[in-house]
Each structure stands twice: as structure tokens, then as C-alpha cells.
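URGENT: need a sanity check before tomorrow's submission.

F., can you look over the Gluconokinase record below? I want to be sure the sequence and structure line up before it goes out.
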Amino acid sequence: MSESTPESGQLGQGQQRHVIVMGVSGSGKSTIAEGIAERTGWVFGEADEFHPAANIAKMEAGTPLTDEDRWPWLEALNAWMRERAAAGESTVITCSALRRVYRDRLREGLDSLDFLHLDGPAEVIASRMEGRKGHFMPPELLQSQLDTLEALDPDESGVVLDLRHTPDELIDEALTWLNLPT
Ligand SMILES: Nc1ncnc2c1ncn2[C@@H]1O[C@H](COP(=O)(O)OP(=O)(O)O)[C@@H](O)[C@H]1O
Ligand SMILES: O=C(O)[C@H](O)[C@@H](O)[C@H](O)[C@H](O)COP(=O)(O)O
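C-alpha cells as predicted:
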């Protein structure tokens, strides 16, 4: 399948792909999404960069975001994907996308949007957050992220991947699920 390779240039409607690597903070979204972007040539987006400064300050201070905090952020991410779609480009972005209603907002106006959910034991995620230096997200917020998380419903296009696998394994599993060459 070559429709999404960097060489293919502008893609017609229906040929482009839009993928969100989802999961709680520290699950490995950035690592895997960057790998997918490298292998596919799709435009990469990092959801943390779409948060208003107030949201970042709130998380940094150890306070979980509310739905109200998240709506403008989700709207900005959706607008960005729609712009890329209008330009005929495929995208892969990181986004916690913790609740079903958030994912519904993210899907608006797109022909298709696939979710790759990085899931696994809380202890593994916690130790990764502890080991990550210079990131604004405090490990204490992990529990609220896990409490907010709603698994993909059967009618949502997506797959759950085991975050304990290595990044290379996960990128291969993602590409295989997406029906792309590994
Ligand atoms: N599959 C993996 N196996 C081991 N360590 C990983 C894996 N994926 C990510 N990491 C490490 O875990 C930490 C969190 O990963 P990151 O990609 O920043 O997660 P997120 O974007 O979901 O917050 C980073 O230090 C990263 O290097
Ligand atoms: O909806 C939220 O509460 C945040 O978006 C959160 O889920 C996200 O994970 C943070 O932005 C931390 O960034 P990392 O996911 O990169 O740790």
C-alpha cells in the first residue's frame, strides 16, 4: 500500500489517513507517534503544543484539567487535522483523548480517524513518568488520568496496543494494524 508514502504528494479525498496515538500521560504517545510519522512521512502533531498556556500551568501545578479546560484544546486539534485534510495531507498526532466525548469532538468533519490506544499497567507508566526529566506533567496526575480514561467503544475505529512492548515493536504493530508496510 503506497497511498500514504512521502513520495505520493497530495492525496485525494478518502486516500489520506488521520491517526491519533492516545493514552494517559507517560504511556508513550510521543515516542510512538513520532516513529509512525518518520516511517510514513505523515505530518506529525503533538497535542501538548495545542494546550493554552493556562492548561499547562494548571497541570504543572498538579491540578487535573476539567472538560471545560479541554474543549478549546480539542477544537484546536480538530481544526488542525481538518486543515491538513483539506490540503490532502495525512496526519499522526499524540493526544490523550481520554473520554469518548473528546474523541467524538476530534472526529468531527473528518472522513476517518483511527485511534491507537497505548495501554498497560499503571506501575509501568508511573515509573516512566518518574524517569522522564524536564516535562511539565507531574506523576501525581497519573491517577486522575486513569480515572478519566474511557476505553475505546466497539464502534470506534481503533486498536489497543500493549505499552510494555518496545517502541520498534509498537510502531510495527501500529503500521500492521493500519494496513501499511512495516
Ligand atoms: N515502549 C516504550 N518502552 C520503554 N520506554 C518507553 C516506551 N515508550 C516511551 N518510553 C519512555 O517513557 C517516557 C514517556 O514516553 P512519552 O512518549 O513521552 O509518553 P507520552 O507522550 O504518552 O507522555 C519517555 O521517557 C520515553 O522515552
Ligand atoms: O487531557 C489532559 O489531561 C492532558 O492533555 C493530558 O492527558 C496530557 O497527557 C498532558 O498534556 C501531559 O502530556 P503527556 O501526555 O505528553 O505526558
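My own read: The chain has one domain: 15-177. Residues 15-177 form a domain with the Rossmann fold fold (CATH 3.40.50.300). If you see anything odd, call me.
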